[in-house]
Amino acid sequence: MPLYDIRCSHCEGIFEKFLNMQALHGQVACPYCKTDTVAAPLLTGGRVGLQVTERWRPRNGAEQLAGQGAAGPGAHAGAARSSVLHNCKGHSCSICLT
Question: Highest taxon of the source (predicted)?
């Protein structure tokens, strides 16, 4: 059932109403003035355009793999490997710098 914008012919109030096709151009109750008005749908804007002004780009390989805000071993700029998901033992690891 579609949602229509309807303007009351008595109080000029605009309200939304779910109506099936058979109920169009029939009588509906206005929620503002409580009188019956013709259910004639308004012509409203058709398309909305969005404009992206800034796009996220990874700062390093870790963010490229794991997404924005990646942290942990291998996420700093001087890391030898660009992987956040490494399995090291901590002994002379080039990623952890230990």
Answer: Bacteria
